[in-house]
Amino acid sequence: MPETAPACEHLRKDHRVIEESLDILLAALLRLTPELIPEIQATVRALQDLAAIHFEKEETIFYPKVRPLLSDLLDRMDVQHEEVREVERYLAELLAEPPQPPDSRWLSEVRSFGIEFHDRIQHHIVDEEDQLLRLAEDRLTAEEQESLAAAMSAVQSRITSI
Questions:
Q1: Angle, to 10 degrees, between the axis of helix 104-127 and the axis of helix 71-96?
Q2: Which pLDDT tens digit goes with each residue over 57-98?
C-alpha cells in the first residue's frame, strides 16, 4: 500500500465534512420543534449540495477506475447511492412546503425520514471507508491515486465555482 493514498484521503475528507452536517441534522431532529424547521431545511440543503459533489467525484472518477477490480462491492455502493437519493428526494419534498403550523404527524414524518436519511448516509460512509477505500488503497498505484485525486479536485473546483 502506498504511504499516502491521495484519492482515498480526498474522499475521506469529504466524508468528515458531510458528517459534520449529519451531526447538526441529527441533533435538530432529536429535539424537533416547529422552530427548528428552518435549520433542518438549511442543513438538508447543505447535505444535498455536499452529496451531489461527492457522488459526482465517486461516480464519474473513482468508481469507474476501481470497478474492474471490485465490481461486486461497487454494485453495492451504487445501490446505496440510489437509496440515499430516494430518501433525500422524499425528505426534500416534505420540507419544501411545511404545513402552517406544522402538525405533530408532519413533524413525526420529518423526524423519521430525516433520521433514515442520516442513517443511510452514515452507513454508506462506513461501508465505503471500511471496505472500498481500504481495498482501493491496496490495489491502486500511487500514480493512479494522484491522478484520481487531481481529477476529483477539478470536479470540486468546477462545481463550487458555479
A1: 160
A2: 999 999 999 999 999 999 999 999 999 999 999 999 999 999
Euclidean distance between CA atoms 47 and 22, whole angstroms: 8
Which CATH number applies to 6-160? 1.20.120.520
In angstroms and rounded to an integer, the radius of gyration of the C-alpha atoms of the chain is: 17
CA 58 centroid distance within chain: 10
Q: Would you say 7 and 77 are in contact if contact means Cβ atoms under 8 Å apart?
A: no
Best CA proximity match to 76, nearest among 123, 112, 7, 141: 123
Q: CB neighbours of 48 closer than 8 A, spacing ≥ 6?
A: 88, 92
In angstroms, rounded to a whole number, what is the distance separating the alpha carbons of residues 12 and 8? Answer: 6
Residue 1, pLDDT above cutoff 50: no
> Domain extents for the chain?
6-160
